[in-house]
Design brief:
The protein is an alpha+beta fold. The protein folds into four domains: 38-135, Thrombin, subunit H, CATH 2.40.10; 145-253, Thrombin, subunit H; 259-352, PDZ domain (Pdz3 Domain, Roll), CATH 2.30.42.10; 373-460, PDZ domain (Pdz3 Domain), CATH 2.30.42.10. The protein has eleven helices and 28 strands. The protein has a seven-stranded antiparallel beta sheet with strand order 5-4-1-2-3-7-6. It has a six-stranded antiparallel beta barrel with strand order 9-10-11-14-13-12. Strands 16, 17, 18, 19, 20 and 21 form a six-stranded antiparallel beta sheet that branches. The chain is globular, with a radius of gyration of 25 Å. Residues 245-315 form the PDZ domain. It comes from Microbulbifer celer. Belongs to the peptidase S1C family. It catalyses: Acts on substrates that are at least partially unfolded. The cleavage site P1 residue is normally between a pair of hydrophobic residues, such as Val-|-Val.
Length: 465
């Protein structure tokens, strides 16, 4: 009798323990079933020249044995197909995805879970946040719900739905590993405080949604860190709050305007913190102040440590571009800083980030086929405002890029400043026109340009007639 009671008690304890364990793991079936219809697969076709290279932040995803495939070589341009994911945010067909999914695409096709297919139009793109807004002509489509990324906590469960390696509508789950990760893009700009997760994200998941357990989109899957080409548990998503602001601007005006302060910054280490009267390392140390910038006009000086900006605490230097970039140009905001051991408060009138208001054009604006001549570029003189902000005195400003032409295939974007073509320096618009006329066809030639003040070398090739 004692033995039977003992066995019963053991079985009861095991049942209770199993039930408790089950309660500790979320049931994701309802979330996935409800939201999958609003997740789409995106296929694109672009014209690519052999000289086109993959951006550095994505080259790390390619195994070493395949890297030779990225090297430029001679030959005729050929259609290149790629794929990604996205999600529907309105019943009339607006869809969010990554910029790098549709960048340079001549054709974008969207497939729903019920196998319906649509050709999509690119409404606007924002390379700085790696976001794009596209649209299909349809009605009564299933939609997702936005969530508040500010409420996301490290350790909570999240779910990704997308098409990894082209496998349709796959779901994976994990936890949030960290918040506010700073990962500079290819132009060394840093305007996205990424959500880091251990969710299995692979090529093809790009642009897909990251859900919380309430079935709300709290992030857009954008990047992975890997040494194998597949997931190793380090994936990064764009926060939904930032994405909603970017998408709203793209829908309204086809571009994104960001705040600009005009400082060069670095982190504060332990020794610097002690020397500057800080209790612990924190804030963004100002190492440079651009002349006539919002920071200069507000009285910010080299050596100041910015501790708060518009009420946001600046823990590390990477936090400052995040909050400044999300501030609308023209707004006056309070700034708290440490100067010579004394805390001070200033007010800054935030400027417009170069390349957003002054130079950035709607990346999807239909380009007239005969615009741009041999390179497929519409260019103009550089406005004085950009010369001051970027410290670039000579060159020509790219105003429009015709897809499928030499300039687009070289990776040029509106807002870039061309400083060299072939082996000749471009100082004026007249120089540009003269050099372009005599560029040979079918040869790889160097091109140097500035993007947001950062110099970049690539190659360009004019197709043979």
């Amino acid at each position: 009798m004692v033995t039977r009671c003992t066995q019963f008690l053991l079985a009861l304890c095991l049942l209770v323990s199993t039930a408790a364990s089950a309660r500790g793991l979320p049931d994701l079936t309802g979330l996935i079933e409800q939201n999958s219809p609003a997740v789409v697969k995106i296929n694109t076709v672009e014209r690519s020249s052999p000289s086109r290279s993959m951006p550095p932040q994505y080259q790390q995803e390619i195994p070493d044995i395949f890297r030779h495939l990225l090297e430029p070589r001679r030959g005729q341009p050929r259609p290149v197909a790629s794929m990604g994911s996205g999600f529907i945010i309105s019943e009339d067909g607006y869809i969010v995805t990554n910029n790098h999914v549709v960048d340079g695409a001549g054709e974008v096709r969207v497939t729903l879970t019920d196998r319906r297919e649509y050709e999509a139009k690119v409404i606007g793109t924002d390379p700085r946040s790696d976001l794009a807004l596209i649209k299909v002509e349809a009605e009564d489509l299933p939609v997702v719900r936005w969530g508040d990324s500010e409420e996301v906590k490290v350790g909570e469960w999240v779910v990704a739905i997308g098409s990894p390696f082209g496998l349709d509508y796959s779901a994976s789950a994990g936890i949030v590993s960290a918040m506010g990760r700073s990962i500079p893009n290819e132009s060394q700009e840093n305007y996205v405080p990424f959500i880091q997760t251990d969710v299995a994200i692979n090529p093809g998941n790009s642009g897909g949604p990251l859900f919380n357990l309430d079935g709300q989109v709290v992030g857009i899957n954008s990047q992975i860190y890997t040494r194998s080409g597949g997931s190793i548990g380090l994936s990064f998503a764009i926060p939904s709050n930032l994405a909603q602001d970017v998408v709203a601007q793209l829908k309204e005006k086809g571009r994104v305007d960001r705040g600009w302060l005009g400082v060069g910054i670095q982190n504060v280490d332990r020794k610097l913190a002690k020397a500057m009267g800080l209790g612990k390392p924190s804030g963004a140390l100002v190492g440079q102040v651009q002349p006539d910038s919002p920071a200069s006009k507000a009285g910010i000086q080299v050596g100041d440590v910015i501790l708060r900006f518009d009420g946001h605490k600046i823990r590390i230097s990477g936090d400052l571009p995040h909050v400044v970039g999300q501030t609308r140009p023209g707004h006056k905001v309070p700034v708290t800083l440490m100067r010579e051991g004394q805390e001070r408060k200033l007010t800054v009138s935030v400027g417009a980030l170069p390349g957003s208001e002054d130079a950035q054009q709607n990346a999807s604006a239909p380009a007239t086929p005969d615009v741009g001549g041999r390179l497929g570029l519409a260019v103009d003189e550089i406005p004085d405002s950009l010369k001051q902000r970027w410290g670039v005195e000579t060159g020509v400003l790219v105003k429009q890029v015709v897809q499928g032409k030499a300039g687009a295939n070289a990776g040029l974007r509106s807002g870039d400043i061309i400083a060299q073509l072939g082996f000749e320096t471009v100082e004026t618009l007249a120089d540009y026109k003269r050099i372009v006329k005599k560029l040979p066809e079918g040869e790889l030639l160097p091109i140097r340009f500035f993007r947001a003040g950062q110099p970049t070398f690539r190659t360009i090739q004019i197709e043979e007639d």
